Amino acid sequence: MSSTNNHHIARFISELKTGSLLTKRKSNGDQYSRHFFLDEYEHFISYHQSEKVFAQPNRYYIHKINEIRPGLQTRTFDRLFRHKIVEQEDAADTSGEGVLTPDEFVNLFYVLTRRKDLYAIMQQYVKNGHKQSMDTIRMNIDELLYFLRNIQNQTIIKYQSDECTSDYLLVSVTEREQVQELINEFETDVELQEKGQLSLNGFRNLLLSDEFSVMKPWCSRHIYQDMTRPLSDYYINTSHNTYLFNNQISGTSNPEAYNRVLCSGCRAVEIDCYDGANGRPIVKHGYTLVQPCLFESIIRFIEPNLFKISPYPVILDLENHCSIEQQHEMARILKQVFGDRLITEPLSTNDSSVLPSPEDLKYKVLVRVIEHDLAGLFIYFQNIPFLPNENDKDNYSCCHSPNLSEKHFDRILENDPLDLIKQTGKSVFRMYPHGLRQDSSNPDPINAWNFGIHMVALNFQHDDLMMSLSYGKFIDNGGCGYILKPKYLINAYKINFNPFDYLKKPLMLPDNIIEHPQRLTITIISGQFLSRSNETTQDIPDPYVVVSTHGILCDQQTQKTKFIENNGFDPLWNETFQFNICFPQMCLVRFDVYDYDVFTKDDRIAYFCLPMTTMQTGYRHVHLRTKHNNLTYSTLFIHVTIENN
C-alpha cells in the first residue's frame, strides 16, 4: 500500500475519532442529535452522553458489525413498510435495481402517508369531490371557509405583536382573507396558493398544526386564568421526593431531578434535609440506600431554572431533620443564592387573613417548614399536622399548611369529607403518597383534587397512569403550574359541596353549583405512526385506543376500540363513544394507545390527556406523548362534538 493511501486512511480514522453530529432515530419516532465517534482504540462506535444523568450510550462494537448498507437499505425501513408497500415498493423503484434511491424513497414516503381518511373528508366538502382522485382533489377558499366555520367552529389566535407575548386576540374564521392566509401557510404548492386552493397535502398540514389540534392552543400556550386570587384557590403542580430518579430505596439523590420537574411545569418541590459532614447539610431519603448529595448543590443547581417555564412562585417543601447549626447553614445558603427572590417577610400590601395571590408572588421563592430555627424563613406555608378536633380547627390560620399522607387522607374522607373540603377554602393542603410505595408508584390524584387538595405530591420519576393525569391537569393555563379551582370548590364552605353526593349522575344540579352538564362525543377515526412500546421486539403493534374521563365520581367512565391487527402505521377504527359529563370543569379526558397481546399484559404505546374544557370540536389530531410526557410523531385522528345536556 502506498504512503499516500496510508496517509488518507490515517486522516480518515482521525476524522472518525473526532466524530460528527448525527441524528439518532428511534422506532417510536423520537429523534435526538448525538455526536457519534470512533473509540480511541478503534474497538467500537459510540456517542457522547445525553443529558439524562443515568443514561448509558450504546456501544456498537466493530467486530459485531456484519455489513454496512448505503442509503436506505435497512431492516428498520423494511419492517416499517412491509405490510404497506409490496406493490408500491416495485412501482417506486424506477431503476429496477431492487434498491431505492433517496429521492425514490421520499416519493414512496409521500405515497404511503397520503391520508385516505382526510381524502374522504375533503370529498364531502368539495364540489364534485367524489369524482376527484387523491392527486387532483382541491378545496377552494369558499369551501375551506365553510369547513372551518361550520364544521370546525374554528377560532384562531391573532397576535398583536410578538407570538411570545400575551397580547393576543381570539378570532373566529369568518373572512375569505383569513382563509387565504391559512392556504399560504399550509399549502406547499405555490401555484395552488396563488389560485387560493388547498391540496390533500395542504389539508393534512393544516389539520396537523398545533392551532388545529384537539387542545385549544391559547390554553396550552398562554396564562389566561385569573391569577390574582389567594393561593388557596389554586391547584399547584407538586412533586414528591423530588431528588429521586428511580425507586424509593436505592440510587442517588440528584440535583438534575429538580431541573427535570421544574422544566415540566412543577412549582412545588420536596427536599429532605439531614446533617452532613463538616457542617454542610445534605439531602437524602432517610433509612434507605439512596446516596446523599449536598443541599447547597441542589439550591445552586436549580436557581437558573426556577422561572424558566413559569413566572409564578416556586415552593420549597423542606422536610427538616437538621440540627440548629446546620439549619443556620441552610438559611444562609437560601438567602445567598436566591437573594430578594426569597420571601422572608409578609407582603406589605397583603390582607393577613388570606394568602397572597400567584400574581403577588411572581418570581418569588417560598419555603414550606415549621421547624426550629428555619421558622424565620417560613412566612406563608407552615407545615402542620391536620387538626381532627372541631375546636382545634378554629386555630387554623391561612398560613397553616396541613400535610396529609395518602392513607390519612382516605381515613378523613371516611369520617368527615365535608369538613375537609371546607378547610381547603382557607389553607393550602398537601397530600403525599403512602410510605409503602417503594416502587415510586403514585396514588390517583383525581379524588384528592375533587376534595380541594391543592398540592397532590406525585413521584415524577415514575411514569405511570397517574402521572399522565397530572400532565393533563397542568398542561392548561399555559403550563404555568397553577390552575384555578371551580367556584363550587373555592366556596365549598358556603354551599356545602360534597363530591360524595354525586356517586351517580343527578337529574339536576343545585342552583348554587355553577356547572353546565355536557355530552361529549368522540369518534376515534384513525392513528398514524403508532410505534412499538418495546424497542427490542420486532413485532408490529396491534393497537387499540382507550378513552377515559376522570373527575367527579359520576363522570368517571372508560371505553375502548377494537384492536387492529399488525398495523401501527395507519390503523383505521371509526368507532364512536359518548360520555355524559355533569362537571366539565373538573373533567380530564385521556387517550391511551395500547398494543394488544394475547399472552402478556398489553403495553401502553403512547397517551395524551387534557381538560375537557380545553377541547376543540370538529376533526382534530391528538399529538401523543410517551414516557415522561415526551413528544412523539404518533397521532390519533378524531372527531369531537360537545353539546349541552
TrEMBL record:
The keyword Transferase does not apply. PROSITE patterns: C2, EF_HAND_1, PIPLC_X_DOMAIN, PIPLC_Y_DOMAIN. It catalyses: a 1,2-diacyl-sn-glycero-3-phospho-(1D-myo-inositol-4,5-bisphosphate) + H2O = 1D-myo-inositol 1,4,5-trisphosphate + a 1,2-diacyl-sn-glycerol + H(+). One of its GO terms (molecular function) is phosphatidylinositol-4,5-bisphosphate phospholipase C activity. Residues 501-626 form the C2 domain. GO terms for biological process: lipid catabolic process; phosphatidylinositol-mediated signaling; release of sequestered calcium ion into cytosol. Residues 374-489 form the PI-PLC Y-box domain. SUPFAM superfamilies: C2 domain (Calcium/lipid-binding domain, CaLB), EF-hand, PH domain-like, PLC-like phosphodiesterases. Keywords: Calcium, Hydrolase, Lipid degradation, Lipid metabolism, Transducer. Its EC number is 3.1.4.11. CDD domains: C2_PLC_like, PI-PLCc_eukaryota. It is an enzyme of class 3 (hydrolase). PANTHER family: 1-PHOSPHATIDYLINOSITOL 4,5-BISPHOSPHATE PHOSPHODIESTERASE BETA-4, PHOSPHOINOSITIDE-SPECIFIC PHOSPHOLIPASE C FAMILY PROTEIN. This is Phosphoinositide phospholipase C. The lineage of its organism: Eukaryota, Metazoa, Spiralia, Gnathifera, Rotifera.
